[in-house]
Amino acid sequence: MKVLVTGGSGFIGSHVVDQLVDAGHKPVIYDRLPSPFRDDIQTQLGELSDLTGLQLAMNGCDAVMHLAAAADVNEVAKMPVESEAANARGTLNVLEAARGAGVKRVVYASTIWVYTGESGERVDEESNLGMPNHLYTASKLAGEMYCRSYNELYELEFTVLRFGIPYGPRARPAAVVPAFVGKAMAGEALTVAGAGDQSRRFVYVEDLASGCVKALDPAAANRTYNLVSDSSVTILEIAELVQELVAPTGIKYTEQRTADYVGVEVSGARAEEELGWTAETPFAEGVSRYVQWRREDEAAAPVPMQPAAKAARGLSAALTRLRGSVAVPFIYTAASLAMLAAYVVAVDSLGLPNAQVGTLAVTMIASLAVFLLIELMWHNPKTRSASAVSSALVTALFIFAVMTPWGHQLFHLATPGRSLFVLTITGVALVIALASAGVALARRRGLIEDAAAARLNA
Ligand SMILES: NC(=O)c1ccc[n+]([C@@H]2O[C@H](COP(=O)([O-])OP(=O)(O)OC[C@H]3O[C@@H](n4cnc5c(N)ncnc54)[C@H](O)[C@@H]3O)[C@@H](O)[C@H]2O)c1
Asked: What is the pLDDT of residue 274?
């Protein structure tokens, strides 16, 4: 299967890419950053806000694993607007692009934080979800809802995976396991709030990635699964384990934070029953693998980047930023306008007979009309049939005028010769370039409704 992995350069996504390769699938990465872990995987750099870029990247894909997101709750709290755009609207764009590209399934990375029950309460995929407290959870839940809506409206298959708290190689340094390991490696004591009895459902990242691959199974169509381990670990247990595995640097107890949330008990039974998936790696084993990876990672001397590689990376980041900017359609529009003006001046200087000028004009105007009708009306189901009928009429008139002897006589056109044919094709190409650049500019500036919004409004 060819699978697009959004966020494939990140912590969990990179493991998903590895396991897709191991399972014989062909992953393609879509991310705003190149993967620091693999350079042998086809990668499309881009933003989740770029609907066209997403759709192009999905061409020929059977499924999409959508993991790109603002995944760090602190980052979300600092940048609420950008985070909502990535998590909620970014997911909407992924679904819309998948619909446009004819992708069968979108597998969506959600979180067990969507469960808002009482501390210690047992929950599963059928449990009612309350109103989320954090913007991160709200935006991830919005993504889940969009998956369902797209299935309901357009029959796009989804699989929602609610991840437990992942740990393992490549994890963000701020998470609890990396933070404890980092401190112990630096010879510092580990800080635990209160008695350290707050428990969490951790899941080893490679187990999580194998769950993502299993979610491509036909049985997982339109299902939601919790990917969690079957036991909870307390903060104190983690601290003690890290002391044992890294160094006995001591544990410092600080005051209990008020009302520290113990968390609900999330069941992973459905994933086991339907997908045959369980989190196999025992916590101690997973932390030990993480410590080993961390030691190897830190021991590997940082290789200074070659100037050429540095320049290529800078250029690719600059191009990605440029693609999202309003300047690009503006530059295309100005350039197409300049080329069309040069073309008109050149044709004028040739001193063509009236019949040939008329032929050029009719061809260009008709092509422009067909292009605009299709471009502006086709995406909206309300105007789609009008667009089809008008396009067909304009095309029929065009064929009649340009291709038939009667049309030539009626419209006083020239009989097409080789040079007229070349001039006509050039003119049509320039007119369509100008029109498409103009439409892109108008869309970017919000003057024309975006196709995705138009489809939703329909
Ligand atoms: N890490 C966790 O604790 C956790 C827990 C539950 C669920 N999840 C979910 O799992 C998924 C992956 O999380 P992770 O921990 O690997 O995160 P990560 O930050 O390591 O990776 C996210 C990747 O997405 C990319 N990205 C972010 N915003 C983007 C945008 N607007 N356009 C294009 N690319 C963008 C980043 O460059 C990065 O490579 C996320 O959807 C997250 O919500 C994570």
From this structure: 97
User: What is the tally of structural domains in the chain?
Assistant: 2
The rounded Å distance from CA 337 to ligand 1 centre is 41
- Is 312 among the domain residues? no
Of 200, 177, 204, nearest to 281 by C-alpha is: 204
- Clarify whether residues 251 and 191 are in a common domain: yes
Written as six digits, the tokens of 114 are: 């969507």
Nearest C-alpha to atom 12 of ligand 1 is from which residue? 67
How many A from CA of 273 to the centre of ligand 1? Answer: 28
86 alpha carbon to ligand 1 midpoint, in Å? 10
Ligand 1 pocket member 51 (CB < 6 A): no
pTM, two decimals, is 0.72
| E strand map for 11-167 | 26-31, 43-45, 63-66, 105-111, 122-123, 157-163, 165-167
Higher pLDDT: 396 or 108? It is 108
Q: Is the CB of 211 under 6 A from ligand 1?
A: no
pLDDT confidence of residue 352 = 86
| Own/partner pairs, 124-133, CB within 8 angstroms, 24+ separation | 124/226, 124/266, 124/267, 124/269, 124/270, 125/162, 125/223, 125/224, 125/225, 125/226, 125/270
pLDDT tens, 255-296? 876 554 557 889 999 999 999 999 999 999 999 999 999 999
Which of 17, 32, 49, 51 to mutate to test ligand 1, by most ligand atoms within 8 A of the CB atom? 32
Shared-domain flag, residues 342 and 378:
yes
Structural domain including 111 reads 2-307
Contact 39, 17 (CB under 8 A): no
pLDDT at residue 320 in the model: 60
pLDDT band for 444, please (50, 70, 90 cuts). low
Q: Whose CA is nearest to atom 32 of ligand 1?
A: 47
Mark whether 250 and 330 lie in a shared domain.
no
Phi-psi region of 195 (alpha: psi -120 to 50; beta: other; left: phi over 0): alpha
For residue 208, being part of any structural domain is answered with yes
* CA-closest residue to ligand 1 atom 39: 10
Cβ–ligand 1 distance for 165 under 6 Å, the answer: yes
* CATH number of the domain that residue 205 is part of: 3.40.50.720
Q: Compute the average pLDDT of residues 51-64.
A: 94
Give the pLDDT band (50/70/90) at residue 317: low
pLDDT digits (tens, 9 = 90+) for 165-184: 999 999 988 889 999 999 99
Give the model's pLDDT for residue 168: 96
DSSP 8: T
Q: Which residue has its alpha carbon closest to ligand 1 atom 26?
A: 68
* pLDDT given at position 454: 43
